[in-house]
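Loading example: each entry is read as two labelled lines plus one structure line.
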Amino acid sequence: MATRLPKVDCVLVGFGWTASILAHELTEAGLQVLALERGGFRDTVPDFSTTFIQDELRYAVRNGLFEEPERETLTFRNKTSETALPMRQLGSFRPASGAGGAGVHWNGQHWRFLPTDFLQRSHIEQRYGRKFIPDDMTIQDWGVTYEDLEPHFDAFEYLCGTSGRAGNLGGQKQDGGNPFEAARRRDYPNPPLKRGLAQVKFDEAAKAVGFHPFPCPASNTSRAYKNPLGVEMGACTYCGYCEWFGCGNFSKSSPQTTIFPVLIGKDGFEYRVRCEVTRVDLDASKTHATGVTYVDAQGREFEQPADLVILCAFPTHNVHLLLVSGIGKPYDPQANAGVTGRNYAYQITSSVDVFVDELVNPFMGAGALGQAVDDFNGDNFDHGPENFIGGGYLAAWTTGGRPILQSHVPDGTPTWGSGWKKAMADNYLKSLSIATHGSVMSYRDAYLDLDPTYRDVYGNPLLRLTFDYHDNEIRMSKFLTDKAEMIAKAMKPRAMHAKPRKAPYSIVPYQTTHNTGGAIMGTDPRTSVVNRYLQSWDVPNVFVMGASAFPQNAGYNPTGTVGALTYWAAEAIRKQYLAKPGPLMSKA
Amino acid sequence: MKFAPDRRRVLKAALVPAVGVAPIAFVRDALADAPQPSAPRVYLNEAEFAFVEAAVARLIPNDALGPGAKEAGVAEFIDHQLAGPYGRAETWYMQGPWKKGSDTQGYQLKLTPAALYRSAIADIDAHVHEASQGKAFVDLDAAAQDALLHELEDGKVELAHAPAKTFFKILLQNTTEGFLADPMYHGNRDFIGWKLIGFPGPRYNYVAEIEQHGKRYGQPTVGLLGRDGRRVMKDA
């Protein structure tokens, strides 16, 4: 029997980036806000201390900061005709658990999506014709434009102290920046990071083959910084322990380093950790949420009433909560009807490892230290002759040189024995890798629903993921890998090793934690779960943040766009919803 | 949890990856004296330990380039890992029903890593016993051991409890981990693995060095517990 608790104005499910931003924005608006986090609390001191956190085995290999499949996972299959089986250990992606969410363990690769990304269907139809889009590809426009989001991209970059160089200031191209980026109102808050040899070599080689390299936007601070909330960050020391680790140096942007100091202890804000929300409670009409039910670490169940419920969990968990709570009609791929769980997407990555004569010293790095080209992202090039949709960036990142997971050996190296040992000795210090980071479109047969067999520790059905790479993505990724090989060759390496991505998609090797869709945004309730303000069409006092709103996935890391969407939704809630609670868009 | 009075419980919490991070002071406190390299086994029995030690000595051999996995304490590393949360698959989803699945669906065995080692070592030794007049894996010469390891890797040996490929993959993965993880986990003793490849250990600051392109980094190798590559964390 659940214990009923006193009502709050707003309950946030999760306590990562989106919840932290909303908690700050909505308490500023005078609301009493409660964040419920399934994991524990953690902060820079003591949890991420540099004398402790730089432990590859514990954090990067044994998954120290992520969710535990034992408590909650999903089942997976490539095709509807197969039986989905549980993801028993983390592999292809690594959702976070704990305060700060994935904002603790990301790399800080902080991008804006392109204007055409937000107009995925209408732009492609207009430039290439309706027939260019395969029948089973279910891409759609977001219902929000780059121009709508520009002030919010800016706000999130200034919160984070992002380091970079503008390529387009108010329509004026800028030397040294990304010439393909859309207009920004002002430059990044901090200059680019220092460059290692890998970045210099990539820059020279990319220019030599006619591409347009630029420093990757990094939410690793290139100098000391005070953000608009008055929170101070220290300059990055290039220790090479960003992704999978927390930053002990106050240099990687995270809720802990940018918001917590002004949020924790603020009037009107409360958080509870080790509290897992198991459903959103609806009234009899099913059009109004009364709050949420959660279970604490002792196994006690609570009913937390709230006027406003905002889902801020990892995308797959947002969708799971919607499905188990009965919010939105579940997607049915056979009937091609329903919305919740529709348009799951991912990203497609590949790499070309490059072996050189110079010492690259890969262990000196930062999560977002990279040089990239954007010539083949989005619709920055003519897709007509290529016969695929989408694109991605190519980059030489030096995120670190952690020996277990971040070493490269040439093609043909034995997997063990003296040959492997010699290859490690010869190449660890003298290699770099060019990554391709590509978009994945949405398809009728890529979706999320509830598993009929497997259950989580609370007895709820696990989420079921049905996903595979389609020919469009494989062709696109090969195109990107070929371009990366061109750059690699221009470095005149002693060896190179191209690693193209192949179908079928496997949930085993780590690829990326950029899972998207399932609770997508739009302007038509028949094809979206939330409207352009991330508000549920069916239950207007429920909002759903995060990449679950992406109708398909673009060729960039998602966090910059997730942050911008959160500020966009926060503005709509503050300026429109709170004045007149109810639907912000008409269903008709 | 964080400030539980019982020291041992706190230490255990510090080592369980997904549980909250224990205060560093407690961990430092626990380092006390470094145990000897020949620490007592914690999970594997002597015969199993001998198997693992012999196998890792072939996977990363002692050769012209210097000492290998055996000298680096990789068998001790694996023994301790199997005794801990990893060996117990503590954070894995281990509910049935159990089905084979496709390669893309990942590990679907009911065996924890610790149980997998135990059953696979017994099965492999039974196989060797039958094929080589009563010998065990450790009795084979290096060439015969290599040949058998290749057969396991290629799935050419049928084991009773688990696919040979699956066990080999985990054995090789754990061997690499033990060779290249911080020495505080019992492997990479004296920084043998890190020195081989040129990794200087976890360091805090490369602000000056990162722009000295192509220059060799000159500082001595260091681990999280300092420059003594034999210090280990109790319970690690």
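Chain A touches chain B through 80 residues (CB under 8 Å).
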